[in-house]
Fold this protein.
Amino acid sequence: MRAVVAEDLFLLRDGLVRMLEAYDFEIAAAVESGPELARALAELEPDVAVVDVRLPPSFTDEGLQCALAARRAKPGLPILVLSQHVEQLYARELLADGSGGIGYLLKDRVFDADQFIDAVRRVAAGGTAMDPQVISQLLTRRSQDKPMGNLTPREKEVMELMAQGRSNAAIAAQLFVTERAVAKHTSNIFGKLDLPPSDDDNRRVLAVLAYLDRG
Amino acid sequence: MRVRNALRVSAQGFALGFVTLAGSITLFVATVLSIVFILLGIGLITTPYVLAAVRGFANWRRRIAGDWAGVTIPVPYRPFPPDLRPGFTGLVERCTLLLKDPATWRDLLWLFTDMTAGYVTSLFSFIFIPYGIYGSVLAAGVWRPIVNSGGNEWYAFIPVSSQSTANLAALLGLGFLVLAVFVNPALQRAHFLVARSLLAPTPQMALTARVERLTATRHDAVDTSAAELRRIERDLHDGAQARLVAMGMSLGTIEALIEKDPQQAKKMLSMARANSAEALAELRDLVRGIHPPVLAERGLGDAVRALALRMAMPVEVDVELPGRFEEPVESAAYFAISEVLTNAAKHARAERVWLDVHHADGTLRIAVTDNGQGGADTTAGTGLTGIERRLGAFDGVLAVSSPVGGPTMVTMEIPCDPYPVSSRRS
């Protein structure tokens, strides 16, 4: 799998490249600025890009803008956005096109290499990877405003993991239950929240995120 | 339009002439007497009240100068210190302060000018129209009974003794009416300009007031930033720094254990990792408190949108900004909004908040309205005073309307100019 890495701090860029290489990714390009990233995304056709929100030369949200522009040009281009902080505002913008293949994680998540690589692979496969902090912010807000249907605590847990973009199998592994139990929970959740059922993992995630964000 | 304007000015001139004569003379005499009676002691008690009336009268004139003639007259009075004593000593203190304020003496001078020059100008702005009409009235036949009864009627410089001279008077009256249309507004303006020459602060007074304000706000700004730095230092010292020390120790122990007790070493490694994650989270919060990332990345508009999304209650945001502002201004505005929103959630227990941010006429205007229980007090709460100080450094102001039972409305204004957003790839 060919990946593009965009990160301006040498130590982090180097660390990301090493980690991805260790998990058998091929690094198509490792760049350190917005214009370089835009060129790499347009010309190299990577399978996935890992992009820092803040990049030179402007040191504003240049990476995020690049990612959004590249996805406008090539819908569904898989990009995982990394940041020192997560904002619902940015998550909303990344999810707005509803085409999947998008991730938004705190930089801290690279501490757990297995989980991080799992997120990169999920995004590359057209899935979603949302930071748990984004989800928990959405949930707090939601529960203050309107109670969340009458989900059982277990169902809430499942929904939280689902909103992060985890597959049924991954949720089952994390909660130490069978996949069939997770499937039952998810169909209950969709019933209680009045969402149209869907077999497609990714569409399901986007539906839940949209539901939470509507608050 | 011009005619109606001249008529309006004439009516206002009538009112002004009456008021300048009655009000200014009364107040002038009262003030002089009260100040003389200070020698007898009684004046100490009466003077503050009399001068308060004078200031009220002068302020009314300042206000109508703006409303009627568009002449702005700033208020020059020095503010009273907040810790005036109550009772008799307070009155004496107040009396001394008032007499030390040069604006008081200028007010007195104005009262005198107002009943002379002020009266004359207001009279002239009034008189042309009725007098002009009177010319026609004479010509219509009123001259006859006057002359018949032996009266000696002069219309301006025309001795009216026959129909032909009365007709001349009517013609001159017409001239007065035309004159009124053109000079009435100018005369009214003259009246208020005379008032302004004494009621507005002298350049020196304005400068003194400005210097006093700058000294106060600079003092506040230095204080606030010193307190901020102390807080940051403490947070770093107790938080991230301490965690890094703990991590270093753990790593040392792990190094020693790794061969003897790999199991234990592994456990400590995961602890060290958790520690580093916590240190990061703490640093992130700290950074948010110093300069929120979205503010740096996107400017005030998106930063308050992101802030609104973080609040527990729904916040309706309406932002309309022409560009970005100087960073210190953006930062002050952001933290002020953040504080007000927190207050709404914590103290007012609001369920809904409306946030309006826009820029017009060189001023950034922010209004935060909530449906909470109200009763916020600028003088009691340290939060609102803090905001006032923060904004003060930029000549910004804060106004709070918060009746008990709600709703609370906080408005803030900061004079500032945007610079256009540099062209951005998108």
In short: Chain B touches chain A through 26 residues (CB under 8 Å). The first strand of chain B starts at residue 153 and ends at 155. Chain B has a mean pLDDT of 87.
